[in-house]
Amino acid sequence: MSAPHPRARSLALGLLLIAAPVLAQQMYRWTDAEGRVHYSDQPPPKDAKNIQSKNLSANVVETDALPYATQVARRRNPVTLYAFECGDVCSQAKNLLRGRGVPFSEIDPRQPANAEKLKTLTGGTDVPVLQVGETVVNGFETGRWQTALDNAGYPASASSRQVGAASKASGPAAAPAAPTQEAAEAGGTPQKVPAVAY
């Protein structure tokens, strides 16, 4: 048996592409004379009652860059990072969250209203501060942050979908360098928020 001619394959593919939308366009529901309900993609007979016509679109599966476990954890225990460009310690804190694929909102406590939020939350103005749901962790220490995220149900690392989505969003720029093992284990010295005039 020989392979199909290239034109025949092209023609078949073209017909399939044209027919696909037609197949999923119209659906009918009607009741026959005996009271039975019918569903069909063919128009109902003339004596049909209660005719309903539905235009159907193709099936679509919504996808989210976040894995289901991360979506659930975010819903139950949203993550907030109080930080600014305070040097290595804040960079390490952000890298840990990004490395685990944790979606977080970042609050800059140099703004007066945000500084008040931070003082209310922690009693001070040291950064970084991690809030995971109701849990608050002052200062950056890898083990404590990992434990807070683990307890909240966040996956231990980012999924390949998250990494792909993050690289598309950030463009060709390289990701920040990961902290060294020694620096990550030791944590960092908390930084004071610069004085803000009220």
Q: What secondary-structure arrangement, pairings included, does this model have?
A:
Layout: H1 6-23, E1 26-31, E2 37-40, E3 49-55, H2 68-76, E4 79-82, H3 88-100, E5 104-107, H4 112-122, E6 126-127, E7 129-132, E8 135-138, H5 142-151, H6 160-170, H7 181-186, E9 191-192
Short structural summary:
By secondary structure, the chain is an alpha+beta fold.
Polypeptide structure, described:
This protein is an alpha+beta fold. It folds into two domains: 25-57, no CATH class; 68-192, Glutaredoxin (3-Layer(aba) Sandwich). It has helices at residues 6-23, 68-76, 88-100, 112-122, 142-151, 160-170, 181-186; strands at residues 26-31, 37-40, 49-55, 79-82, 104-107, 126-127, 129-132, 135-138, 191-192. It is elongated, with a radius of gyration of 28 Å. Residues 166-186 have low confidence and may be disordered.
